[in-house]
Amino acid sequence: MLPQWSGDFSVGHEIIDQQHQTLFNLAHKAYRIANSPSSPNEIKMILVEFFDYMKTHFKDEEQYMQAIGYPRLEEHRKIHRDIVAEMAGMVKNVHSVEVLKEMISTIAKDWLLTHILQEDMQIEKYRREQLETRATCEVKEVQYYYYTCACPNKEHKLTESMHIFVSNSSQPINCKECHQRIHFKQKR
């Protein structure tokens, strides 16, 4: 049997996740049709629905991967093209209802399990790693420079950009309270 959609399969993008949920639902529908008495028309309808939705999803997913700078975009794009070509070729060349049913079952199981649960989860892994890297960089980048003046027990906490400005300024920068020049103390 096919797995049910779970938040564990999320790639962290609302639209792509909704599309994956729809593909799970279509795969379940296709699997039911493939494993019950069905007319050739029912089989063709689910194949067309599944196929059309898959093409839309692939286009959207590729745009998302490009937007996040996914390094395996071209490889993933090739997988998408291969799936579409393989499905189109199979549907075009099959005339037996039983073979079509077997094909639907295989597409629903193998494509869903292999593509979404393995390939697409690599996108989420990359996205998560990028967020963690960015968060780490942001934390490291927030450094403060401390200055003193004539005020007792007072420190002036400046960001790096302000520190650079003060360091490069030909005019003295004075404390607003004591009106004395501030002097660099330390970086933290």
UniProtKB/TrEMBL annotation:
The keyword Cell cycle does not apply. CDD domains: Hemerythrin (cd12107). The keyword Metal-binding applies. Pfam families: Hemerythrin. PROSITE patterns: HEMERYTHRINS. SUPFAM superfamilies: Hemerythrin-like. Coiled coil: none annotated. InterPro entries: Haemerythrin_Fe_BS, Hemerythrin, Hemerythrin-like, Hemerythrin-like_sf, Hemerythrin_metal-bd. Residues 12-123 form the Hemerythrin-like domain. Keywords: Iron, Metal-binding, Oxygen transport, Transport. GO terms for molecular function: metal ion binding; oxygen carrier activity. Belongs to the hemerythrin family. This is Non-heme iron protein. It comes from Helicobacter jaachi.
